[in-house]
Amino acid sequence: MTAAVAERDVSGIFAANRATGHIAVHAVARDGRTRRARVREHGSLRVRFPNCMDALEAVVVNTGGGMTGGDRFSIELTVGEGARLIAGTAAAEKIYRSSGPNAEMDVTLDVRAGGHLSWLPQDTILFDRARLARRIDVDLADSASLVMAEAVIFGRAAMGEAMEYGFFSDRWRLRRAGRLIFAENVRLDGAVSEHLARRAVTAGGIAIATVLIAPGDDTVIAALRALEGTDEVGVSAWNGIAVARLVARDGAALRRDLVAVLAALGQSVPRLWLQ
User: Of 155, 234, 235, 244, whose CB is crowded by the most CB atoms within 10 A?
Assistant: First the structure.
Protein backbone atom coordinates (compact mmCIF):
# COMPACT_ATOMS: atom_id res chain seq x y z
CA MET A 1 0.00 0.00 0.00
CA THR A 2 1.42 3.39 -0.99
CA ALA A 3 1.60 6.32 1.43
CA ALA A 4 -0.99 8.21 -0.63
CA VAL A 5 -3.46 5.32 -0.48
CA ALA A 6 -2.89 4.85 3.25
CA GLU A 7 -3.50 8.54 3.88
CA ARG A 8 -6.68 8.42 1.83
CA ASP A 9 -7.91 5.38 3.77
CA VAL A 10 -7.24 7.12 7.10
CA SER A 11 -9.08 10.22 5.89
CA GLY A 12 -12.03 8.09 4.80
CA ILE A 13 -12.20 6.32 8.17
CA PHE A 14 -12.03 9.67 9.98
CA ALA A 15 -14.82 11.16 7.85
CA ALA A 16 -17.02 8.10 8.33
CA ASN A 17 -16.76 8.48 12.09
CA ARG A 18 -17.66 12.16 12.21
CA ALA A 19 -21.14 13.20 13.34
CA THR A 20 -23.52 15.10 11.10
CA GLY A 21 -26.90 16.48 11.96
CA HIS A 22 -29.56 18.68 10.41
CA ILE A 23 -32.98 19.86 11.49
CA ALA A 24 -35.44 22.11 9.67
CA VAL A 25 -38.63 23.42 11.29
CA HIS A 26 -41.32 25.47 9.56
CA ALA A 27 -43.88 26.94 11.96
CA VAL A 28 -47.14 28.55 10.80
CA ALA A 29 -50.05 30.39 12.44
CA ARG A 30 -53.41 28.60 12.31
CA ASP A 31 -56.59 29.44 14.23
CA GLY A 32 -54.74 31.81 16.55
CA ARG A 33 -52.03 29.30 17.47
CA THR A 34 -48.62 28.38 16.09
CA ARG A 35 -48.25 24.85 14.77
CA ARG A 36 -45.67 22.74 12.99
CA ALA A 37 -46.09 22.70 9.23
CA ARG A 38 -42.93 20.76 8.37
CA VAL A 39 -40.20 19.11 10.41
CA ARG A 40 -37.09 17.40 9.03
CA GLU A 41 -34.46 15.57 11.09
CA HIS A 42 -31.24 13.94 10.00
CA GLY A 43 -28.27 12.41 11.78
CA SER A 44 -27.47 13.33 15.37
CA LEU A 45 -29.95 16.20 15.74
CA ARG A 46 -33.55 15.84 16.86
CA VAL A 47 -36.21 18.41 17.73
CA ARG A 48 -39.02 18.05 20.25
CA PHE A 49 -42.06 20.22 20.96
CA PRO A 50 -42.94 20.15 24.69
CA ASN A 51 -45.42 23.03 24.57
CA CYS A 52 -47.85 24.59 22.09
CA MET A 53 -49.79 27.53 23.50
CA ASP A 54 -49.95 30.85 21.63
CA ALA A 55 -46.27 30.31 20.81
CA LEU A 56 -44.78 26.99 19.77
CA GLU A 57 -41.72 25.80 21.71
CA ALA A 58 -39.03 23.78 19.93
CA VAL A 59 -36.15 22.06 21.73
CA VAL A 60 -33.13 20.88 19.75
CA VAL A 61 -31.42 17.72 21.04
CA ASN A 62 -27.92 16.56 20.08
CA THR A 63 -28.05 12.80 20.60
CA GLY A 64 -24.26 12.62 20.29
CA GLY A 65 -23.77 14.61 23.50
CA GLY A 66 -21.40 17.16 21.99
CA MET A 67 -19.23 18.00 18.99
CA THR A 68 -15.59 17.57 18.05
CA GLY A 69 -13.35 18.21 15.05
CA GLY A 70 -14.96 17.27 11.74
CA ASP A 71 -18.55 17.20 13.05
CA ARG A 72 -21.04 19.25 11.02
CA PHE A 73 -24.44 20.36 12.25
CA SER A 74 -27.02 22.73 10.77
CA ILE A 75 -30.29 24.18 12.07
CA GLU A 76 -32.95 25.90 9.95
CA LEU A 77 -35.93 27.62 11.56
CA THR A 78 -38.66 29.27 9.49
CA VAL A 79 -41.42 31.26 11.19
CA GLY A 80 -44.40 31.90 8.94
CA GLU A 81 -46.59 34.99 8.80
CA GLY A 82 -48.00 35.85 12.21
CA ALA A 83 -46.48 32.76 13.86
CA ARG A 84 -44.54 32.77 17.15
CA LEU A 85 -41.75 30.31 17.88
CA ILE A 86 -39.52 29.93 20.94
CA ALA A 87 -36.56 27.66 20.15
CA GLY A 88 -33.53 26.52 22.08
CA THR A 89 -31.45 23.51 23.02
CA ALA A 90 -31.99 20.78 25.60
CA ALA A 91 -28.55 21.25 27.14
CA ALA A 92 -25.31 23.16 26.78
CA GLU A 93 -23.48 22.28 23.56
CA LYS A 94 -20.03 20.93 24.43
CA ILE A 95 -17.23 21.33 21.90
CA TYR A 96 -14.46 18.84 22.67
CA ARG A 97 -10.75 18.74 21.81
CA SER A 98 -9.99 18.42 18.09
CA SER A 99 -7.05 16.68 16.43
CA GLY A 100 -7.11 19.31 13.68
CA PRO A 101 -10.38 19.92 11.79
CA ASN A 102 -13.04 22.39 12.93
CA ALA A 103 -16.43 21.44 14.27
CA GLU A 104 -18.94 23.35 12.12
CA MET A 105 -22.31 24.74 13.12
CA ASP A 106 -24.63 26.62 10.73
CA VAL A 107 -27.80 28.33 11.97
CA THR A 108 -30.32 29.81 9.52
CA LEU A 109 -33.29 31.79 10.86
CA ASP A 110 -36.09 33.09 8.62
CA VAL A 111 -38.93 35.14 10.16
CA ARG A 112 -41.73 36.31 7.90
CA ALA A 113 -44.23 39.17 8.07
CA GLY A 114 -45.69 39.63 11.55
CA GLY A 115 -43.82 36.59 12.88
CA HIS A 116 -41.70 36.43 16.03
CA LEU A 117 -38.78 34.16 16.88
CA SER A 118 -37.02 33.79 20.22
CA TRP A 119 -33.80 31.85 19.56
CA LEU A 120 -32.46 30.99 23.02
CA PRO A 121 -30.04 28.05 22.97
CA GLN A 122 -28.18 27.10 26.11
CA ASP A 123 -24.45 27.79 26.47
CA THR A 124 -21.79 26.62 24.06
CA ILE A 125 -18.85 25.31 26.13
CA LEU A 126 -15.45 25.10 24.48
CA PHE A 127 -12.95 22.67 26.00
CA ASP A 128 -9.18 23.07 25.73
CA ARG A 129 -7.92 22.55 22.13
CA ALA A 130 -11.47 22.71 20.78
CA ARG A 131 -12.07 24.17 17.32
CA LEU A 132 -15.45 25.63 16.35
CA ALA A 133 -16.54 27.54 13.25
CA ARG A 134 -20.09 28.85 13.51
CA ARG A 135 -22.24 30.80 11.03
CA ILE A 136 -25.55 32.46 11.91
CA ASP A 137 -27.69 33.93 9.11
CA VAL A 138 -30.94 35.73 9.90
CA ASP A 139 -33.56 37.03 7.46
CA LEU A 140 -36.37 39.17 8.85
CA ALA A 141 -39.38 40.56 7.03
CA ASP A 142 -40.16 44.25 7.59
CA SER A 143 -42.71 43.53 10.32
CA ALA A 144 -40.97 40.51 11.87
CA SER A 145 -39.38 40.54 15.32
CA LEU A 146 -36.53 38.62 16.92
CA VAL A 147 -34.84 38.04 20.26
CA MET A 148 -31.76 35.86 20.11
CA ALA A 149 -29.14 35.11 22.73
CA GLU A 150 -25.93 33.15 22.21
CA ALA A 151 -23.61 32.42 25.13
CA VAL A 152 -20.08 30.99 24.90
CA ILE A 153 -17.98 29.70 27.79
CA PHE A 154 -14.27 29.10 27.36
CA GLY A 155 -13.57 26.12 29.65
CA ARG A 156 -15.38 24.93 32.76
CA ALA A 157 -14.09 26.87 35.76
CA ALA A 158 -16.23 24.85 38.19
CA MET A 159 -14.35 21.71 37.10
CA GLY A 160 -10.93 23.38 37.11
CA GLU A 161 -10.77 23.24 33.32
CA ALA A 162 -9.56 26.15 31.17
CA MET A 163 -9.42 26.66 27.43
CA GLU A 164 -5.75 27.48 27.00
CA TYR A 165 -5.51 26.93 23.24
CA GLY A 166 -7.98 26.40 20.44
CA PHE A 167 -9.98 28.12 17.74
CA PHE A 168 -13.33 29.93 17.72
CA SER A 169 -14.83 31.65 14.69
CA ASP A 170 -18.30 33.19 14.87
CA ARG A 171 -19.89 34.88 11.83
CA TRP A 172 -23.27 36.65 12.16
CA ARG A 173 -25.33 38.28 9.39
CA LEU A 174 -28.77 39.85 9.91
CA ARG A 175 -30.90 41.16 7.05
CA ARG A 176 -34.16 43.08 7.24
CA ALA A 177 -36.27 42.84 4.06
CA GLY A 178 -33.15 41.69 2.23
CA ARG A 179 -30.99 44.61 3.42
CA LEU A 180 -27.94 43.85 5.55
CA ILE A 181 -28.27 45.70 8.89
CA PHE A 182 -25.89 43.77 11.15
CA ALA A 183 -22.65 41.94 10.37
CA GLU A 184 -20.08 40.66 12.81
CA ASN A 185 -17.09 38.34 12.77
CA VAL A 186 -15.35 37.10 15.92
CA ARG A 187 -12.17 35.05 15.74
CA LEU A 188 -9.95 33.70 18.52
CA ASP A 189 -7.07 31.51 17.39
CA GLY A 190 -4.13 29.99 19.24
CA ALA A 191 -3.55 31.05 22.85
CA VAL A 192 -7.21 31.75 23.65
CA SER A 193 -6.69 32.30 27.39
CA GLU A 194 -4.04 34.94 26.65
CA HIS A 195 -6.37 36.72 24.24
CA LEU A 196 -9.19 36.72 26.80
CA ALA A 197 -6.90 38.16 29.47
CA ARG A 198 -6.46 41.37 27.48
CA ARG A 199 -8.38 44.34 28.80
CA ALA A 200 -9.82 45.14 25.36
CA VAL A 201 -11.19 41.59 24.99
CA THR A 202 -12.76 40.29 28.23
CA ALA A 203 -10.17 41.30 30.87
CA GLY A 204 -9.99 37.69 32.05
CA GLY A 205 -13.69 36.82 31.85
CA ILE A 206 -14.27 33.36 30.41
CA ALA A 207 -17.99 33.67 29.66
CA ILE A 208 -19.52 35.94 27.03
CA ALA A 209 -22.93 36.41 25.45
CA THR A 210 -24.59 38.50 22.79
CA VAL A 211 -28.29 39.34 22.84
CA LEU A 212 -29.76 40.76 19.64
CA ILE A 213 -33.18 42.42 19.69
CA ALA A 214 -35.06 43.45 16.56
CA PRO A 215 -36.70 45.86 16.53
CA GLY A 216 -34.70 47.61 19.23
CA ASP A 217 -34.50 51.26 20.31
CA ASP A 218 -33.75 53.59 23.23
CA THR A 219 -36.49 51.94 25.29
CA VAL A 220 -34.52 48.70 25.23
CA ILE A 221 -31.34 50.54 26.14
CA ALA A 222 -33.01 52.20 29.14
CA ALA A 223 -34.44 48.91 30.41
CA LEU A 224 -31.07 47.14 30.28
CA ARG A 225 -29.04 50.02 31.71
CA ALA A 226 -31.35 50.02 34.72
CA LEU A 227 -30.23 46.50 35.66
CA GLU A 228 -28.32 46.10 38.91
CA GLY A 229 -26.13 43.31 40.28
CA THR A 230 -24.76 42.10 36.95
CA ASP A 231 -21.08 41.51 36.19
CA GLU A 232 -20.80 43.54 32.99
CA VAL A 233 -23.54 44.36 30.49
CA GLY A 234 -23.25 46.90 27.68
CA VAL A 235 -25.98 47.80 25.20
CA SER A 236 -26.34 49.97 22.11
CA ALA A 237 -28.92 50.49 19.36
CA TRP A 238 -28.67 51.39 15.68
CA ASN A 239 -30.30 50.46 12.36
CA GLY A 240 -33.49 49.60 14.23
CA ILE A 241 -31.86 46.87 16.34
CA ALA A 242 -30.39 46.69 19.84
CA VAL A 243 -27.41 44.56 20.86
CA ALA A 244 -26.40 43.72 24.41
CA ARG A 245 -22.95 42.34 25.28
CA LEU A 246 -22.32 40.37 28.44
CA VAL A 247 -19.03 39.35 30.03
CA ALA A 248 -18.78 37.33 33.23
CA ARG A 249 -16.18 35.54 35.32
CA ASP A 250 -17.79 32.11 34.83
CA GLY A 251 -20.78 30.31 33.34
CA ALA A 252 -22.96 30.57 36.44
CA ALA A 253 -22.58 34.34 36.63
CA LEU A 254 -23.27 34.65 32.91
CA ARG A 255 -26.45 32.55 33.18
CA ARG A 256 -27.69 34.77 36.04
CA ASP A 257 -27.00 37.95 34.07
CA LEU A 258 -28.50 36.58 30.88
CA VAL A 259 -31.74 35.61 32.62
CA ALA A 260 -31.89 39.13 34.10
CA VAL A 261 -31.38 40.74 30.69
CA LEU A 262 -34.07 38.63 29.06
CA ALA A 263 -36.49 39.32 31.94
CA ALA A 264 -35.91 43.06 31.47
CA LEU A 265 -36.90 42.59 27.83
CA GLY A 266 -40.08 40.76 28.87
CA GLN A 267 -38.70 37.53 27.45
CA SER A 268 -39.21 34.38 29.49
CA VAL A 269 -36.54 31.72 29.14
CA PRO A 270 -37.27 28.11 28.11
CA ARG A 271 -38.09 25.91 31.09
CA LEU A 272 -35.04 23.73 30.45
CA TRP A 273 -32.79 26.70 31.31
CA LEU A 274 -34.05 26.56 34.87
CA GLN A 275 -33.72 22.82 35.53
Answer: 244
